Sequence to fold (314 residues):
Amino acid sequence: MADLRRPERTYTIRQLCIEFKVTPRALRFYEDKGLLSPAREGLNRVYNYRDRARLTLILRGKRVGLSLAEIREILELYRVEDGGVAQSAKMLKKFSERIVTLEAQREDIDHAIESLRDACKHLEARLAKTAPDMLPQAVNYDQALRARLDGVHEFAK
Amino acid sequence: MADLRRPERTYTIRQLCIEFKVTPRALRFYEDKGLLSPAREGLNRVYNYRDRARLTLILRGKRVGLSLAEIREILELYRVEDGGVAQSAKMLKKFSERIVTLEAQREDIDHAIESLRDACKHLEARLAKTAPDMLPQAVNYDQALRARLDGVHEFAK
DNA sequence: CTCAAGCTTGACGTTTACGTCAACGTGACC
DNA sequence: GGTCACGTTGACGTAAACGTCAAGCTTGAG
Fold:
């Protein structure tokens, strides 16, 4: 059976939407904003391997709090020799700054995780005392963990 | 000289705004949304030590991508015994899920940082070859680093 | 007393990132 | 040949998180 992700493979808008759990509207929006530019087959959009890779980067960027405009700037670096020297210098500066803010953000996240873990411990202790029968709810934690290890990001509601 | 952050100290809205680099509008907005509830002196808001601590948490939450509504939920945990057992169980679940997403986010950030570092290296190499005189721009990186170590987050524009 | 500084409460505007129709085209079945 | 399923392009709506006035109170300096 052929690899569904082999480089020559193409995707319809719906296929990408399902894979990345986004809506067609979102993909068209990214296109409007210049973050994607899939080929056309008649009217229909045809996404290729590189479009898919870009989408991966777009969504990752979003998850770390970048705006679409910022993501666009970053993606444009990968356009070969897009700008002159001045452009490169500007980019270098921007990227450096961005790295610093991301590192700060990582510290914030570490703090937040720690706080939440602490809060969980307190909650668990409280539940263990007053209502041990409610503790199976804590199974959700393991569920989430397993899901994460499997690369699945859908949790039971 | 008295410690400007001693527990009994109070703050005007402007003082907090300057310290945390936010606008009065933002603080009033957070109040509208139930995240803050400073005392009043006549009409004027008077923030105390705990209000200031809450604001720290609010901004940290924002930096890691939480919505104000989510931050509000988390802050309410710290209201003593606010809910019954069911409430605690619900919170435990929510917090556990949040921890998982934050850990994923941290990985995203690590990836992003790595990518950006890589991009910077390429840019630097390119500049070193074509226009070594533009490289002093890279000083911005050190500037940013120093600023960060000093706890200052304002960069030259 | 006046007047500016700093606070207040509305109330409307703005940006970002889409959601949600409406109206239409185009194969592929039955 | 009707009718899905899936695609398209507008165009308008929306939620979050404030920005930006307008209009008014209060209080200390001159």
Q: What stands out?
A: Chain A touches chain B through 52 residues (CB under 8 Å). Residues 23, 25-26, 29, 33, 42-44, 62, 67-69 of chain A lie near DNA strand C (CB under 10 Å from a C1').
